[in-house]
Amino acid sequence: MGKVVLVTGVARQLGGRLVRRIQRDPEVDRVIGVDAVPPGHHLGGADFVRADIRQPAIARVLAEHAVDTVVHMDVTGTPLGAGGRTSVKETNVIGTMQLLGACQKSPTVRRLVVKSSTSVYGSAPRDPAVFTETTPPKSLPSGGFAKDAVEVEGYVRGFARRRPDVAVCVLRFANILGPCADSPLAEYFSLPLLPTVFGYDPRLQFVHEDDVIDVLRIAAHAPRRGTLNSGTFNVAGDGVLLLSQCSRRLGRPTVPVFLPAVRWVGTALRSVGASDFSPEQIRLLTHGRVVSTAQMRDTLGFEPKYTTAETFADFARSRGPGLLPPDALARAVDRVARLPFRPFTPGPALSTASTPSPVATPGTE
């Protein structure tokens, strides 16, 4: 018999893509997609079950379908539809608690994969240059999605202790970007003008949507020979980009704002629904964050197809030209450089001290 895989959060594009991809694996017999709202996209041959993971009914779904692999994708930073921050937090935290409780009681569950984020490390001025999976954060996130991710991972560790027979894999993704990216950072980069913190140019890492799907598929199956897909892994593309480089490649000008005033800007953006400019995102855009991916390569055996720069380039193409398209700006600079240039040559300086004063001629009066 093959696997019966249950995927949460399938109403989002990323969850839907994962469901369609897993169905093509020959060792998978059946895929169950779960979400509180019906998806607006096709799930292929998967069975969709409308269920809220915040409710105990999720336990019945696991039992009825004899699920042996659970991929928890419903940990996110953006609301779906009309839901606000409260709804997102309840789904992230309470929903995870209910799902883990159902998995703990299920005799058939043998593997659990949880989508997490590198935001669990926080962003602080005295952070290390590179975080590893075992590096403790200098300052724990105080709110928003980052705090949700910290709580979710805490519950997952408790589940792993109670059910040591279940293989648990936690994937800490860097900022996910791509043509269909749905995240607060993607909303930020879509603004016509990018507010930045004056005097800071943080280092950022990205991971492409396609690589997210590939690594989730690896984590959901039995480990390949010579690899281990149980544990916690950072997932990111090679290299880093500075925020200033990102703005130039998007063609979107930056608006430097002094740090005390950035919170006012964030409140204004949230009030008009333009972007979720949360305090944690402000810290990221101030101090940045870079993680090591050695374990992802050496232990998990995953090699991303896209680097950080290639991921951002694909995202930038999907967003169209900004106010200052890089190509047009480069052509304008070239035209200015080709203009004829005549150096200025100053004339002889006139000195009133050296000019002879008029002398009266006798007899002219």
Tell me the series of helices and strands, N- to C-terminal: EHEEHEHEHEEHEEEHEEHEHHHHH
Kindly provide the radius of gyration, computed on alpha-carbon positions and rounded to a whole number of angstroms. Answer: 28 Å
How many beta-strand elements?
A: 13
Q: Termini, distance in Å?
A: 129 Å
Beta strand %:
15-25%
Question: Can you count the helices?
Answer: 12
Read across the widest sheet, the strand sequence of neighbours is: 3-2-1-4-5-6-11
Low-pLDDT windows of residues: 360-365
**What structural class should be given to the helix and strand makeup?**
alpha/beta
Query: What percent of the residues sit in helical stretches (DSSP H or I)?
Result: 25-40%
Shape: elongated
Mean pLDDT: 88
What does the main sheet amount to? Answer: 7 strands, parallel
Structural notes for this entry:
This protein is of the alpha/beta class and 365 residues long. Helix content is 37%, strand content 16%. The protein is built from twelve helices and 13 strands. The protein has a seven-stranded parallel β-sheet, sandwiched between helices. The C terminus is likely disordered.
Annotation keywords:
365 residues, alpha/beta, 7-stranded parallel beta sheet, two-stranded parallel ribbon, 12 helices, elongated, disordered C terminus
Please describe the topology of this protein.
Layout: E1 3-8, H1 13-22, E2 28-35, E3 47-50, H2 58-64, E4 69-72, H3 85-105, E5 111-117, H4 144-162, E6 167-173, E7 175-177, H5 184-189, E8 194-197, E9 203-204, E10 206-208, H6 209-220, E11 231-235, E12 241-242, H7 243-250, E13 254-257, H8 259-271, H9 279-287, H10 294-298, H11 308-319, H12 326-338
Parallel strand pairs: 1-2, 1-4, 2-3, 4-5, 5-6, 6-11, 7-10, 8-13
Antiparallel strand pairs: 9-12
Helix pairs in contact: 1-6, 2-3, 3-4
